[in-house]
Amino acid sequence: MDPRKVLLSPIKIGNRTCPNRFFMQAMECNDADTEGNPTDLTYQRYENLFRGQSGMVSLEAITITDKSRSRKNQLTIMPRNIKPLTNFVQKMKEINPETVFIFQLTHSGELSKSDFSRKVCIKPLPGYGGDVLSEEELDRIMEEFVLSAKIAYEAGADGIDLKLCHGYLGSQILRPYNDRPWKYGGSWENRRQFAFDLFERIKREVNDSNFLIGAKISAWEGFPGGFGTAGSDSPVIDLTEPIDLIKGLEERGASFFIQSAGSPSITISLTQVDKRAPYFAYLHPTFSKAFRDNLKPETVVIGSNYSVYRDGKNGLFAVEDSSLLTVAAKNILNGVTDMIGLGRQSLADPLLPLKLSEGREEEINYCTLCDNCLELLIQQSQIGCSTYNKYYTEVLVNTRQEKGKLKVSHT
Ligand SMILES: Cc1cc2nc3c(=O)[nH]c(=O)nc-3n(C[C@H](O)[C@H](O)[C@H](O)COP(=O)(O)O)c2cc1C
Known about the structure:
- The chain is α/β, with parallel strands linked by helices and 411 residues long.
- It folds into 2 domains: 3-367, TIM Barrel (Alpha-Beta Barrel); 370-411, no CATH class.
- It is built from 14 helices and 12 strands.
- Helix 3 (82-95) crosses helix 4 (135-155), helix 4 runs parallel beside helix 6 (188-206) and helix 6 (188-206) runs parallel beside helix 7.
- Bound molecules: flavin mononucleotide (FMN).
């Protein structure tokens, strides 16, 4: 098997074609200006990704209102942001018109920060919580999601990813823990309705079959009552609801799904597998294959947690070749996933697909899994790779001087 052949082969998503199998994951980097518009730093990051010739790039989690931010300098998608976002998309398309560009739309819910945002929740989780949302408020949030999808379309994005993962509002509604007796809670039929209605409305109101819609989903949040468990306080994994969700969204026009797991403020090592237990990465193919097996062949599945494999020096044993490129190609060939999502690796080397296509594999900078990027994220600093990019080494040093060193695994 030649991994290059597999990974550099094109794939269709809806009416679009991605030139290769690499998907650069949404990675919030907290460097927008005070209006939530892209700054020079934001431009630099995405210009590199587009130069790197990825098949598809996701714009990081972009907040649908000022009030729903989890990062102080988060990108924002409100009517005031149309022009700057249009210029941004235009610039990226000038650099590389082949790469498919989607926006990840989000509302942070109970992960919104009360010092600069409004912390709200569906049903307070012990240690989390916030103002409990009324039906009217959630209906208004649906309007705001629909409006932000229309703005993404107007700005020239090729599609959107509705963030239904990682403990943000989209996943809080879905989880069995939401047993609150209301329109959007209790039975699975009620909990899934927000996502179903949202997809239907966006499909209808954008009304362009070229515009892609999809979702990033934590198939298993990893704590009792989280999405992908068997009940409101059950620790047992049960994928019945996640599978029903993706099938229902596919019926409503979704053409891709990004598989994830965990809810990082609670179960961080499931979302970002770390070097203390790299074998947690083996959970993810089970979830992406469950997605793959239950969808139409033309619906694209994107698997997560490939950064851990690196160049094979990864602490994973009993496998002949566990390097990223080999594992990724094998998983595509074996029907485990269609595309390969790269998160931390995309910060370490945004040029990976280009280097691969030019036969320069030995020049790839592999993510070291130091997780300094996560530390910067949690500390609300600007985010980037402190290992390979000197600017972010300095940001890290300054952040630690100001706030002390943070042990990421204990947050
Ligand atoms: C600094 C940082 C920012 C992230 N931002 C987002 C985000 O905006 N949206 C999202 O869905 N996931 C986000 N993630 C999770 C990644 O997209 C990805 O799912 C996760 O890191 C696992 O992939 P990896 O092993 O390739 O890093 C972020 C992760 C990190 C480390």
